[in-house]
Write a structure and sequence with these properties.
Catalyzes the dismutation of two molecules of 6,7-dimethyl-8-ribityllumazine, resulting in the formation of riboflavin and 5-amino-6-(D-ribitylamino)uracil. GO terms for molecular function: riboflavin synthase activity. It comes from Vibrio atlanticus (strain LGP32). The protein is of the alpha+beta class and 261 residues long. Helix content is 18%, strand content 36%. It contains six helices and 14 strands.
């Protein structure tokens, strides 16, 4: 294969997009060298780690199963216990120790009393996610952990929130809704047009990217099933970046930095 350089771009901001087996990178770096680099990483060697395929590292699919109401908050010295009410369907087969995502944040079941399920939240979780802003009566997006053989309708998500984004604009049209979110500039390298992103536990496709903002387009089904139908400007949402995009961006930046030194 002939080594071919990608179009010129800023070496400080390495942008990439993965679509099937096609890797396009804007920057001063040979495409052949990038493929060689990725072939040497665990990320690429483990063929089971692929978009839309379930493996032992996958926790959630990003397809929110519904909303649950927060019925009790028990504040303790070092943590809080949140109790939510789940539907009969979601409670079926649920056991203590199981994982359930709340607005995309992976939490562990600590107590089950009928349809009321309790979870302990440490101070770091309360500080770094919007779960710390909740009051009794609020709703959260919920998804039970994926099981082997489940269809992956979204993209693989760990339930580990990276940071929060601010909702800065809501554009309503007849058939859908567009939400614009704002992030710190240094995090935008992981936000790529038509790439995946986890927002409050929902796997979404990024619509447009502008400076430190990005948009997502939501259909009525998503608006009805999730919190997005009631989100307003000023709300904060939990963000989990696509782990494969994050791994590639970080690896390429590290290699470019080493080449310059």
């Amino acid at each position: 294969m002939t080594s071919k350089r990608c179009p010129k771009g800023s070496a400080k901001s390495v942008l990439l997009f993965v679509e099937g087996d096609l890797l396009r990178i804007l920057g001063y770096f040979p495409l052949a060298a990038i493929k060689t680099l990725l072939s040497r990483t665990k990320f690429n060697r483990d063929r089971s780690i692929r978009p839309r395929m379930l493996n032992r590292n996958l926790m959630f699919t990003g397809i929110v199963q519904g909303m649950a109401t927060l019925v009790v908050i028990n504040k303790k010295e070092l943590f809080q216990t949140h109790t939510i009410e789940l539907s009969d369907e979601m409670v079926e087969g649920l056991a203590i120790g199981a994982s359930v995502a709340h607005n995309g944040c992976c939490l562990t079941v600590t107590e089950i009393s009928g349809n009321q399920i309790a979870f302990d939240l440490m101070q770091a979780t309360l500080r770094l996610t919007n779960l710390g802003q909740l009051t009794v009566g609020d709703k959260v997006n919920v998804e039970r952990a994926a099981k082997f053989g489940d269809e992956i309708g979204g993209h693989s998500m760990s339930g580990h929130i990276t940071l929060m984004a601010n909702l800065v604009d809501v554009i309503k049209t007849e058939n859908n809704r567009t939400l614009w979110f704002e992030l710190p500039q240094e995090s935008m390298k992981y936000v790529l047009t038509k790439g995946y992103i986890g927002v409050d536990g929902c796997s979404l496709t990024i619509g447009e990217v502008e400076e430190n903002r990005f948009s997502v387009h939501l259909i009525p089904e998503t608006l009805n099933r999730t919190l997005f139908g009631s989100r307003e400007i000023g709300d904060q949402v939990n963000i989990e970046f696509d782990p494969q995009t994050q791994a590639i961006v970080d690896t390429v930046e590290r290699v470019l930095a080493n080449q310059k030194s």
